[in-house]
């Protein structure tokens, strides 16, 4: 075996944090969810803060991962589901996801990527396009200054990539976290609507901010900077839902 073959094989090891065999929140139907380690963002509210730093993972080839997934196929396929790669952010391990999704499609398994879409490498998107049945993309903030404050990165490549995927007819779902004082302001909601008018997408899912992952920050000794922010009221979430529905969009409020 040549050195380059060995290198290629080793670079195709995925860094897997954990699995969820019967997920109902990460895409259509019942999903086998694979949480990949690593994320280019540092969202102040991250509920999977233990998956960001490439520190806590198990290495696996795409074939090994498929072997774990296959026994669940009868369950998720009969419930119109499939496999979702999440994290962290799978956009950090594009080659691994491409090879894993290729295997899924060969085995007639529906593929979904749950991502921020923060990458400056169009080639990665290009390779993911034919093997990804559904893109679930989190929209964080439309004011770049606030986006940087909230996530640590600019929103420019994210918005550009979404336009690119939309032009390439990718099936898109958006996720939008309702974070009081940050993403529920009228200026940001207006910017959200203006952006949505420029892309083709299927639905937008609203996720009310919660603090369920907060304990992980404490456990890791990380300062949680959103102390004092309470989850939005159901009433305010419904108002946002109605506003988006009036724009003609299909909206799901994940209560
Ligand atoms: S993109 Fe997701 S995983 Fe990454 S920091 Fe933000 S919330 Fe956490």
| Major pleated sheet | 9 strands, mixed
Put simply, the count of helices is: 10
Classified by CATH, the class is Alpha Beta
Order of helices and strands: HEEEHHEHEHEHHEHEHHE
The Cα radius of gyration reads: 18 Å
Explained architecture:
This protein is of the alpha/beta class and 255 residues long. It has a single domain (3-175, 201-206), classed as Aldolase class I (TIM Barrel, Alpha-Beta Barrel), CATH 3.20.20.70. It has 10 helices and 9 strands. It has helices spanning 3-11, 62-69, 73-78, 94-106, 122-128, 144-151, 156-167, 186-196, 214-220, 234-246, and strands spanning 14-23, 31-36, 58-60, 82-87, 110-115, 134-139, 172-178, 203-208, 251-253. The chain has a 9-stranded mixed β-sheet with strand order 3-1-2-4-5-6-7-8-9. Helix 8 (186-196) links the parallel strand 7 and strand 8 (203-208). The longest helix is centred in the middle third of the chain and has 13 residues, at 94-106. It is globular. The structure holds iron/sulfur cluster. Residues 39, 41-43, 46, 48, 52, 87-89, 116 line the site of iron/sulfur cluster. The site of iron/sulfur cluster has 11 residues, from loops.
């Amino acid at each position: 075996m040549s050195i380059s073959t060995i290198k290629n094989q080793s670079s195709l090891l995925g860094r897997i944090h954990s699995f969820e065999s019967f997920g109902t929140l990460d895409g259509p139907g019942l999903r086998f969810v694979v949480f990949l380690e690593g994320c280019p963002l540092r969202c102040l509210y991250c509920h999977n803060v233990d998956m960001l730093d490439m520190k806590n993972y198990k290495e696996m080839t795409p074939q090994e991962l498929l072997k774990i997934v296959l026994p669940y196929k009868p369950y998720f396929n009969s419930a119109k589901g499939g496999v979702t790669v999440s994290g962290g952010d799978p956009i950090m391990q594009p080659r691994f996801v491409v090879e894993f999704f290729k295997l899924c499609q060969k085995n007639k398994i529906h593929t979904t990527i749950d991502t921020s879409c923060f990458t400056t490498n169009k080639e990665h998107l290009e390779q993911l396009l034919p093997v990804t049945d559904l893109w679930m993309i989190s929209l964080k903030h439309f004011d770049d200054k606030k986006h940087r404050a909230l996530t640590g990165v600019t929103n420019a490549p994210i918005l550009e990539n979404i336009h690119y995927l939309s032009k390439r007819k990718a099936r898109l779902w958006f996720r939008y976290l309702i974070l009081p004082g940050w993403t529920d302001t009228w200026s940001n909601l207006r910017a959200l609507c203006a952006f949505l008018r420029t892309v083709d997408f299927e639905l937008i899912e609203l996720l009310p901010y919660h603090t369920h992952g907060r304990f992980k920050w404490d456990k890791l000794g990380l300062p949680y900077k959103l102390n004092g922010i309470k989850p939005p009221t159901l009433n305010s979430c419904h108002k946002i839902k109605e506003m988006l529905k009036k724009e003609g969009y299909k909206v799901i409020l994940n209560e």
